Amino acid sequence: MLLNARIEKVSFYQKFGFESYGHPYDKNGHTYLKMIRHDSRCAMCDSRY
After folding, report:
1. Could you tell me the sign of the dihedral formed by the alpha carbons of 11, 13, 14, 19, in that order?
2. Which of 33, 7, 8, 32 lies closest to 20, judged by CA?
3. Max Cα–Cα distance, the chain, nearest Å
4. Which of 5, 12, 13, 14 has the fewest CB atoms inside 10 Å of its own CB, making it the most exposed?
5. Residue 36 confidence (pLDDT) above 60
6. pLDDT of residue 49
């Protein structure tokens, strides 16, 4: 699962298993950071791939 989180919300999403990756970027006057959470439906997380 991917999401774009405002930089001030990163710690909130980390509580739910999200990890940040990449570099922060600015959009609409806010700083965002890409975050990912690995789950059973995530093809990137499946060891068969």
Report:
1. negative
2. 33
3. 41
4. 12
5. yes
6. 41
Predicted pLDDT at 48: 47
The SS3 of residue 14 is helix
> Which tokens is 25 given?
């970027």
Q: Report the C-alpha gap between 3 and 47 in whole angstroms.
A: 22
At 43 the pLDDT is 61
28 bridge partner residues: none
Three-class SS state of 12: helix
CA–CA distance from 4 to each of 13, 45, 47, 49 (Å)?
10, 19, 25, 25
